[in-house]
Amino acid sequence: MRTKKAEITALIQEKKGAKPGEAEMISNYQWAVSQVMGNMTEVELEEAEKEAITAACKGKQYAHKFASMMWKQCGMRVVILEAWLNEAKQVTVGSHDFNSELDGGQSFNCLQDIQKDWENYAQESFGRDPDAAAADTDSEVPCISLLKCKPRLDVVDLVTKSDGKPWVANIKQVSLDSLKNIVRGYFTYHYRIACGIPNAAIPWGEVARNQNKYISPKYLPLNFKVTDPSKMHKKDATLLLGFWRSHQDKDEHSVLRF
Q1: Tens digit of pLDDT for each residue in 19-58?
Q2: What residues does each domain of the chain span?
C-alpha cells in the first residue's frame, strides 16, 4: 500500500475536506484505505499482500539495521515503538530494543510505563476511538514484544565476591547466555577500575578494532580475538573463562587488566 499513500491522502482531502496532520485525516484514513483497496486490481491486491508479508517477516531485520546504523554513525541509542493492523484488522503494538547488542549498551526495560499512551496513539492513528476501545472488553490492543519493566541485571554482580573482588566461578553446565553475561561482567569489572567510572560501558567495537591497545595478550588465550560477548560462540566464551579461572587460582590479582 506504500504506492497508494498519495491516492489515499488525496481521497480524504477531496471527499472529507481534511488536510494532512488534521484529526479528520487520521479518523478517515481506514475508510479511505478501504475505498482505494476496493478499486484495486487483483494483481495490485496480491502485491499489497506481498508487502504486508515482507513487513511482518523483515520488520525486525530492518529495525535492527536502523538501530545499528544510528549507533555507529550518530552515537544514538534507539528504541523502536511500532503499531500495525494484523490479519484480523486489530491494531497491534510492539517494540524493538537492540541496545544490549550494540557495544555493551543497556536495554530500556520500562516501556510498559508508556504502553497505554502508545496504545491510544496507535488506535487514533488507525482511525479507531481509543475510548470506545477501552470500553469494549473484546477490543484490547494485542501487544507483541512490548518489554515489561524489570530490574536491570548488572553483570558485574555475577563475577563479584562478597569482599568486592572479581572471581570466575565454576562454569560447568552453564548456559550460553549466562557464559556471555559472565564474560561481559568480568571485562566490565576491570574496565571500570581502569577508567575510574563506576557505570562505564565498554566500547566493544573500538576494543575489537584495537585489541592490543586495550588489553595485553598475556591476559587472553593464545590468538584470542576479543569481541562483544553477545556475539561469542560457546566454545570461545568457555575457553576465555577457563583461561581466567586457571590464572586466578595462581594469582587472582593478575588475571585481567585494561
Answers
A1: 776 667 666 776 777 777 777 777 776 776 666 556 556 6
A2: 1-39, 57-127, 157-249
| Helix 29-38 vs helix 5-16: crossing angle, to nearest 10 | 110
| Alpha-carbon torsion, ordered 172, 174, 176, 181, to 10 deg | -110
Whole-Å CA distances, 229 to 124, 208, 217: 41, 11, 18
Give me 131's grid cell.
475510548
Torsion on CA atoms 87, 15, 3, 85, rounded to nearest 10: -20
Alpha helices (H) along the chain = 5-16, 23-27, 29-38, 42-74, 115-125, 130-135, 176-195, 204-209, 211-214, 234-251
Is 0.90 surpassed by the pTM of this model?
A: no
94 within 8 A of 144, measured Cβ to Cβ:
yes
**DSSP code of residue 39:** T
> Could you give phi then psi for residue 80, rounded to 5 degrees?
-105, 125
